[in-house]
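Milestone M4 deliverable, item 7.
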Amino acid sequence: MITPTTRNWVVGILIFLVLTTLAIYLWVEYQMTLRFGAYTQVVDRGRFQPQSGPMMITNVSLLAADGESMIPGQSILLQKGKIAAIGTQLTAPENTTLVDGSGKFLIPGLVDSHVHLEDSPNDLLLYLANGITHVRDMGGVTKYLTWRQQLRQDFVGPDIYITSEKVNSLSGIEAIFNSWTRTRINISSPAQANQLVEELKNEGFDAIKISSFINEDMYQHLLAAGKQKGIPAVGHLPYAIGLSGLWQSEQTELAHVEEITKALNEDFGGYNQSTATDYLKYVHMRSGEIATKLREQQIAVTSTIWLMETLPEQKFALPPLLEQLPLAYANPGIVEGTMLAKGWLPGHNSYQLSSATLADPDALARSRKFWQTYVAAIHIITRALAENDVQLMAGTDANTAAVVPGFSLHEELKSLTQSGLTNAQSLRSATATPGEWMQSNSGKILPGYDADLLLLDANPLADIDNTRAINAVFRAGRLFDRDKLDAMLAAVRQANDAARTKSITAFE
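Output delivered:
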């Protein structure tokens, strides 16, 4: 006869075994999530050594320091990784390589202010090949600190500004599950907040990434500790804080324009199909006031608009969208995903609607209206930010579903222009503004600035799409010509093709 005590022991052991098995499974999936790069062979960046030594770009049209015009007929001398001189009558020192800039346009190297490297080192080549000389990783791990150190020695890739993983204030089982399945840090006391900031500062992280799910007490302690240590707080607008709390905080940046529209939706009381028009009127009414506050508090905003614009397509018409993307260059592990980490493809895309919703005409109509309104609100706020001179930085959320590293920044710049920015404003959001915000000594073409430059065959002030017309990239004064850039792209594509397990050319 089984006694109650024995039965309880058996049940307890079974529960323990089930939980242990689940924990091991989640841990393995978590490790797979962190190791997307293992899905494709890592390309040896050493194959793409740039031409180095003193250089002079001659007879080029270069972007003025205010970003509003091109100055024709200029020569620019690059020495020891810096812009040494600019003028119309420069004499090249002995042993200087001359680069003919006739008919070409010189702008600062581009900055993508919101990326996720996702342990995919080949993406560093994609950024450089697309004219991006700086990226800001918004969820970094210690490995990226090593990457940055290597890049500052060989320059075959962009410099990296590295934030911490998102900081939450969860506790108990929820905190354990969250840290196992997602890259998150949890704090629950002032002592933990102080210790975390101390560790991040000592390790070399540039900023603290704020989560949406941090409570007000931990938020305030974290920001106070960051201010004391000189490390800024950036990222999401916590639900516990809202816009009114933001104005009283020390947070220096919002990682998405949608952080503002989500907060406005909370203030509005939540819109639906019947109140969507009124919500947009409310957003428009509040937009100028919010933009003014952001400017006064010197809070920068990163865009990630193009991703938001794709959400209706990813939800309702995913295959046509995927067919337009340069998927061959995206890491197959990220595109295909894992059991816990959703990918980009039909049936496994994190944004795609359920089959039940897609089969329900009423639910489909409600969802379509919701997301169309969501995007429209973002456009309203973006225009207000530009009109009120808020620090607006172009960012893509690269490696989120459909956002191909490197290529996506050019889409983002086009979306910014279509949202109401001038071509000059859009270009500034990916050059001077993030350069100033990151204090990187880049983003303008002036003597003494880092020689991170992009030589174009067409004028981006005439058409923002011309940022794609890349003739050459200068990284710390080192020259990567078009042939070298094409070789980078070909190598990444070849590695991806060899690792791919699912088709990216035909979708059901």
